[in-house]
Amino acid sequence: xxxxxxxxxxxxxxxxxxxxxxxxxxxxxxxxxxxxxxxxxxxxxxxxxxxxxxxxxxxxxxxxxxxxxxxxxxxxxxxxxxxxxxxxxxxxxxxxxxxxxxxx
Length: 104
Prior knowledge:
Order of helices and strands: EEEEHEEEEE
Shape: globular
Radius of gyration: 14 Å
Number of strands: 9
Number of domains: 1
Helix content: under 10%
């Protein structure tokens, strides 16, 4: 089980791996744990896309990370806890969204 993040300018994202202490997905599947890294944002605005996505070999077990899910109608939402084998957060039009959402 792992937590993957493709929201490059998030302060918790290290090599596509989420390092947040806890994760909360809201009813609209947005990742409320997203925290912009202002330095990454500023550099990207000035120089365009400059961050190479490096795959992290460090995997975090979802069982050890508080992961609250408020997304209604998701197959993996079990009593407000994500029950998926892993999650991926993506950049969707500037928002951090849970791509693991699967309509039940």
